[in-house]
Each structure stands twice: as C-alpha cells, then as structure tokens.
Amino acid sequence: MVSDSTLHALLGAVVTIVLSFVPFSPVLGGGVAAYLNEADGNEGLRLGALSGAIATVPLVLFGLVVVSFLGFFALGIDGGVAMGIGGLVAVLVVGLITVVYTVGLSALGGYLGSYLVDPN
C-alpha cells in the first residue's frame, strides 16, 4: 500500500506536470504536496523534493525519445556520429539543469506549503 506522503508527492508531481506551461510550476507542485500532507518545515522540504524527483521522470523519458530520434537522423549526415554524441552531451547537460531546477523549486514549494499549514 502507498503511504500518504508518497501519494501526496505523486499528486504534487502531477500538478507540476499539468501546470508545466506556467513558470515555476514545481513550486506549486511541491507546495500542494506539503499542504495536503500537513507537513512541518523539514518534512515539507523532503516531500517537495520527492515530488520534484517524481516529476522529472517524464521529462527524462521525453529527452531520451528526442535524442533517439535525432540520433537516427544524424546517422545519415556526414559527421553524424559526432553530431549524435554532441546531441547526447547537450541533452545530458540540459537534463541535469532541469533536474536541479525541478527538484530545487519543488523543495522550496514544499517548505512554503508547510508554512501555509502551520505559520509558527
């Protein structure tokens, strides 16, 4: 059975993904997760970070699909292997930045969501 914390983190990740067109949507997702769980400050940070980590899974899978398609097209071009490797490195760098952005802002949202529950 899934614990309430994990379920709330999953709901926060869904909020992050659904509102991904809104800037700083991970803050909203982490805040929802911590608020629903009625977490304190430390637990809110942990829950927000977990929500962000769950939300990065679809982003990573999408990046891998894009790299796969670009790799297939790059093989037909002169120097295609170099373009494929360069594309992979670029996606890895962008992916790392995306993970740090999503998890960090979700943790911030978790802290803010826990503050809304108990402002003391």
TrEMBL record:
Protein name: DUF5518 domain-containing protein
Domain of life where this protein originates: Archaea
A Pfam family recorded for this sequence: DUF5518
Transmembrane segments: 53-75, 87-112
Classification via InterPro entries: DUF5518
Keywords associated with the record: Membrane, Transmembrane, Transmembrane helix
